Amino acid sequence: MSRTVTASKFVGTVSLGLLTGLSYTLSTTIVPPLLALPTATPAHSTFRHLRALTSRHQVFFSTLSASSLVMAYLLSPSRLRHPYLLWASLAVGLGWGGEAYATVKRRVSRNRTGSEAAINAGQKANRAVREGSWTEDEEWISEDGNVNGEVVREGMDGWRVKQGIKAGIWGLGWAMAVVGLWGDGA
Fold this sequence. Notes:
single chain, elongated
């Protein structure tokens, strides 16, 4: 059982470190060159692809990290149940908390309008979320079908800031997990 607990702590800590590194790299080195692309259309398509891949990887690493750390806490003997495992898991949840809140708020506001367009958009968004390709393209495309460069830039900047905040929160959780592992001697 102690090997399972040690392996869970290690897997949770490493995946939390990878999650932190992913968000940090996105916010500091990946998005800035996208902002320098000469036109909005390639920036928009590249950014859509980047967001879809990022979301998929962040969900994987956050699920792996949180479940491993909680499992290590639950499987530990009572004298070895250190709260840093729960605090690090909480940091993983906080990294996703704001995004989950914004998604729910957006869906509720669309459903309250009651218009046919909002209902269709909500169904389309639900389908896109299930398929892993959720994007808010309706906001970025103008009435004539062209991509609005200013809106794309604002969206990228906002997303970059969110990734930086996530990296900070997840980095704090990772630091707690590393110090906790060091203290455990695991």
